[in-house]
Amino acid sequence: MSPAFGAMEVEHYSKGVLLEPFVHQVGGHSCVLRFNDKTICKPLIQREHQFYETLPTEMRKFTPQYEGVVSVSFEEDEDGNLCLIAYPLNGDHDNLENLDNSDCEPKSKLLRWTNKKTMLLENEKISKEWVRQHRKEEKIKSHKLEEEFEWLKKSEVLYYTVEKKGNVSSQFKHHNPWSMKCHQQQLQRMKENAKHRNQYKFILLENLTSRYEVPCVLDLKMGTRQHGDDASEEKKANQIRKCQQSTSAVIGVRVCGMQVYQAGTGQLMFMNKYHGRKLSVQGFKEALYQFFHNGKYLRRELFESVIKKLTELKSVLEKQESYRFYSSSLLIIYDGKERQEVAVDSDPEDLEDLSEESSDESAGAYAYKPTASTVDVRMIDFAHTTCKYYGEDSVVHEGQDTGYVFGLQNLIDIIKEIRDESSE
């Protein structure tokens, strides 16, 4: 066992860790939960688990780091709070040696989500807690709270104002209605099965948003085909219909979810998969433009890095023999925190604290360029991935996943179009 994961951390972890909603989940139907700042977890699906344990070395930089398996229970504490608690799998800590456990919330410090009379799964009480946490200064009647939460759940595109006081990133908790929806559904499923089963395996994965203060996340469903080889006829027909009615069939990619910080208004913009399915190719392009626009200006400095990483990923996937990434998503992530700008002809140390406002005032005297920004491009969701190395699959494919590669190339081309048009 590594020194970083010593006896104290193991003892802390063995008490059970409270799993919270992962507030930066913008797409998908599987519930993603926060294990700690650097780690998330999701229900273990055997095919996805197999993918992470056997993925080619050259693909690892384009997927979240796999960090092991935990056992998750659906529990009530002494006050009647419904919680999901993670425990080591069979008391075996070997596969968690490198896991930073210092930020985990132990079971003894359960978050008080609700009381015994009103369970977490009741929408009205969730909405009250939601608004109570983030709009304490406003006095809103109970029926208004219920209406607000119902609106949040039904709206396909919405803007949510972030409180101006304090660190922007500290205001993110529970803002994202999609993550709350997935969390509720997961609790409901586990509650219904509690009498028959209360031990679930979850996989631990790297939290790709942890490095960003204000993560802007774009979830893209990739490929011209979404159904797996084992899909029922009904599922197959449903997925084909969704592809044909969206941009998936035409360009091999569609918007599955989006979260963007609007610096101009201090708002978060959310777009869910239902809106993404309705977009035309032009609408898809406009959504991409919106993802790279912070409400004040287009983040042009991000384009080259995104294009470079997408091109590298495309090259890697073109060499993957037999893999098919059906229903997989691609995440593009960057920091929505406003960039600082520096004068080209000035000493960077002298301008270290230069704000955008002051640079605007001095625009006549200096030319400014943006500081470097980090962009991440990662593949996620491999529940329907297949390849000949798995052995048990009845269908064996040859060559590259042409539908996925087709989508990547079109994505690259559209981003280049946005870049070129914005520089004219």
TrEMBL record:
GO terms for cellular component: cytoplasm; nucleus. Keywords: ATP-binding, Kinase, Nucleotide-binding, Transferase. InterPro entries: IPK, IPK_sf. One of its GO terms (molecular function) is inositol hexakisphosphate kinase activity. One of its GO terms (biological process) is inositol phosphate biosynthetic process. It comes from the Eukaryota. The keyword Transferase applies. Its EC number is 2.7.-.-. The keyword ATP-binding applies. Belongs to the inositol phosphokinase (IPK) family. This is Kinase. It comes from Pterocles burchelli.
